[in-house]
Write a structure and sequence with these properties.
Length: 90
């Protein structure tokens, strides 16, 4: 079973919604999410934490991408013209 369409919890960065509140079908009707998003101070605190989490995630992805790149590979072979082995100037 894939989690591709699993809703994410807006309060627990990057984690799926676990339906932790009774009678909740997802983040859209979660009382805790509504409380945090309606309170200016809580929302500002959440935004600060989210931006720090997102920054860390971007840095981790950059490192992983950099580690996956091949190193020391030649850029491209020199041009040989149409016939293999013949210089391009012929």
């Amino acid at each position: 079973m894939s989690n591709a369409n699993a809703p994410k919890c807006p309060l627990r960065y990057g984690e799926p919604c676990t339906l932790c509140q009774p009678y909740v079908t997802g983040p859209e009707d979660c009382q805790t999410v509504a409380l945090v998003m309606s309170d200016p101070e809580l929302k500002a605190q959440w935004a600060k934490g989210y931006s720090a989490w997102a920054r860390q995630r971007r840095e981790e992805r950059k490192k992983a991408h950099k580690a996956a790149e091949p190193t020391g590979a030649p850029a491209s072979p020199p041009s040989q013209g149409l016939v293999t082995g013949m210089p391009a100037s012929w």
